[in-house]
Amino acid sequence: MKHLYFLAIACLLQGSIFAQDTEITLEESVLNQYAKYYPLPQSGLGFLPSGNFYTYNKTDEDGKSLLMKGTSKTGSEKPWFSLDELKSWNAGELEKLSRMPRFNWLNDNEAVFEARDGKYIKLNAAKRSAQVLTVLPENAEEVLFNHDYSAVAYVFENNLMIAKVGGETVQITNDGSEAIVYGKAVHRNEFGINGGLFWSKDGQHLAFYRMDQSMVTQYPLVHITTKPAETEMIYYPMAGMKSHHVSLGLVNLSNPEARYIKPEGDPEQYLTSVAWSPDAKSVFIGLLNRDQNDLNMTEYNAQTLASEQVVFNETSKTFVEPEQPFWFEPGNEDQKYWFSERSGQQWLYRYSKEYDGVLLFPGMLQVQEILGFNQSTRTLILKGTGEVKRNGPITDASRNGTQTYTYLFTVGNDDTPRMLNDRIGTHSAMVSEDGNYIIEHFSSIETPLETTIYTLDGKKVKTIHSLENPLNGLKIGKSELITLNSGNGDLLYGRIVKPSDFEPNKKYPVLVYVYGGPHAQLVTNTFNAGASLWMNWFAEQGYIVATIDNRGSGNRGQAFEDWIFRNAGAIEMEDQYTLVSYLKDQSWTDNSKFAVHGWSYGGYMTTNMLLSFPGEFVCGVAGGPVCNWEYYEVMYTERYMDTPASNPEGYKATNLVARAADLKDDLMIIHGTIDDVVVWQHSQAFVQACIDAGAQLDYFIYPEHPHNVRGKDRAHLITKILNYVEDHIGSN
What mean pLDDT do residues 51-69 have? Predict the structure, then answer.
């Protein structure tokens, strides 16, 4: 049977012979999706600190790289300076720049950017000058400047370093090692933690994580690039096993000596949502128990390190998941806001001396982010999901998890949040520091990308950028959105990709692409409905490619996610089967030719679907699959499954290794050999169980690849997957 690899080569050869041919190759769809075929916003787009101006990068007709400067009030624009001009301001340091840097503006004329070799450059656009601000060691990690770039903190060989710019560098810690780590993300980056350094607003105080992993069992990763192969040991806390211990250190620039907040209680509790008070007198830490169902938001005195108060306690029968710190209202900093799903949806709650966790605005809106604030009107600019009329109520009927909007809410006003723009689709925005102007990106399945600047009252100033569909003129499959009902009445949003020459009277084989895990959302009302371009390419070869976001997935609220609690992989099967049943009821699908593919949680789902619904699929391809939740890490697994000791039935029911004998359909598992997320042990254990049960399967590895296959090898991966599907359910 022909392989898709050769189809791709044929398309390439044909395209070179016939200039009018508009087909693309599989390799091009994988490697050039974002470089060539995705409507990206302008690089460098953002407001200058005053809010009166905005900038973005542009290449003119002569190929010259320019930084454009626009006036926020009128939208009038002109070139500010070119890359060649920037280089001339300090030829010795900037001559090797190949593109316009990413600037961090200190004011409307001065900015800092990273050049090369650890050098940070400060420029003055008014004076047309640039000079070296500071130089950091080549292997400095977690580099974080304070807000005015007068000081910098970084991690060097797992120790914390701090320096005033232009002054001496001070080594704050001395016992950093593989086991003792300073200033880096902890708890395996769960709870929204993506760093371990926290500057105070005044830039004079720094908080930092200290993580002791010495009690955590080490796990071996084997590298084959040496003779003989070498073992790399990583600290990997598996569900139910010992976890690391974390404390929070404090240091100030006037006296750079570390002092530590060591919260009472279980040393394996989680330290989340770290925030300085605006006056730097207090530090707030969200202390979450290891069961992840009891959160104490605690205020500590930054001088005495003593606990001053528990601002609130939040509990849940399932789990509490703090992912953002307190947000303090500018100009009224006693007022602080907290994101919580305690009422079912993620909303904002207000805390102060007068307000003890008051819900700002009840309704079906899922608040995702505070984008900005206008002090004069006390208007919060928010990002959230939903579909709300400008002056209408938020109701169940108007909620839609595939859509995202920019909302305006006046603090102290009981009115419903207002939309900046109510076009149905996906809106994302940036806000000027003063809150007077908003730049919003809009995309939908019909609209690739429009970028518009607005005033706070919703008046359109100018459309800065409007892109044509980069897929126009290509012979490629089209994406559509569908809505189905789950067994309990929840709406499920799905996507179907059909060939461009789709014929409703023809029978098509089907590939179901699945993820299905928490936090992820695959189907959105945005460009191409969120589909990867290889899906459109594959559809063009004569397939239907379908996806649905089942219960348990992201941006739908606590109740929607709670379905998987203590039994991950059960309710998801029901919703995925709802999609399969819908597809098999259509006149245009070949019910004898269904396949399924997914990676990570999607690999778990793929394998689970073959085991749960034998005969429904001809084959599946599972990448980096979880096969036994006991082998996965503490923080993620125990949130949804509790520990193996407290939930033995749940772990037994979700253990795919124990069900290997149920494998009746063709399955290929793919795994990276140095996967440090879903360790290789998962799929190897499943393979051994299949051998023991006499069940056959196919297996492929990617040497020296971690949890996913990136770079040039990704084209090889997608070809491998689609070849397998083609061999089993080929469209011809």
Answer: 96
> Which phi and psi (to 5°) does residue 623 adopt?
-100, 135
CB-neighbour burial class of residue 438 (10 A; exposed 0-12, middle 13-18, buried 19+): buried
Using the predicted structure, report yes or no on whether residue 296 has a pLDDT greater than 90.
Answer: yes
Give me the domains of the chain, ranges plus CATH numbers: 474-729 (3.40.50.1820)
Residue 69 token pair:
């400067």
In 3D space, the residue among 229, 206, 154 whose CA is nearest the CA of residue 184 turns out to be 154
Q: Is 592 exposed, middle or buried (0-12, 13-18, 19+ CB in 10 A)?
A: exposed
Cβ atoms 616, 580 nearer than 8 A: yes
CA 416 to the chain's CA centroid: 29
Q: Is 6 exposed, middle or buried (0-12, 13-18, 19+ CB in 10 A)?
A: exposed
User: Is the per-residue pLDDT at 15 higher than 80?
Assistant: no
DSSP 570-624: SHHHHHHHHHHHHHHTSTTEEEEEEEEEEETHHHHHHHHHHHHSTTT-SEEEEES
> What does the alpha-carbon distance between residue 357 and residue 368 come to, in Å, rounded to a whole number?
18
Here the tokens at position 148 are 């005015």
The predicted-structure confidence for 268-295, as pLDDT tens digits, reads as follows 999 999 999 999 999 999 999 999 999 9
Q: Which of 707, 713, 716, 727 is catalytic?
A: 707
Distances (CA, A) of 668 to 595, 621, 631, 663: 11, 5, 21, 12
pLDDT of residue 353: 81
Burial class (CB in 10 A: 0-12, 13-18, 19+), 369: middle
Task: Using CA atoms of 488, 517, 603, 494 in order, give the dihedral in degrees to the nearest 10.
Answer: 60
Residue 476 has pLDDT above 50, yes or no: yes
* pLDDT tens per residue across span 477-498: 899 999 999 988 889 999 999 9
Is 731 known to be catalytic? no
Q: Residue 363: what pLDDT?
A: 62
Active-site annotation holds for 707: yes
Query: β-pairing, 698-702 with 666-672?
Result: parallel
80-94, 304-318, 320-334, 406-420: which has the minimum mean pLDDT? 406-420
From the candidates 441, 675, 728, 731, which is the catalytic residue? 675
The secondary structure of the chain in percent helix, strand, coil, rounded to multiples of 5, reads: 20, 35, 45
Give residues with Cβ within 8 angstroms of 241, minimum separation 6.
216, 217, 634
Q: What is the DSSP string of 339-394?
A: EE-TTSS-EEEEESSS-EEEES--SS-EEEEEEEEETTTTEEEEEEES---TTS--
**Geometric angle at alpha carbon 312, from 310 and 314, rounded to 5°:** 125
What is the percent of the chain where pLDDT is above 70? Answer: 94
SS3 408: strand
- 589-599 vs 508-513, strand pairing mode: parallel
Q: Give per-residue pLDDT as tens, 673-700.
A: 999 999 999 999 999 999 999 999 999 9
Question: Between helices 533-540 and 713-729, what is the axis angle to 10°?
Answer: 30
3-state secondary structure of 723: helix
Active site residue 705: no
Catalytic hit among 600, 612, 683, 731: 600
CA gap 133, 139 in Å, rounded: 18
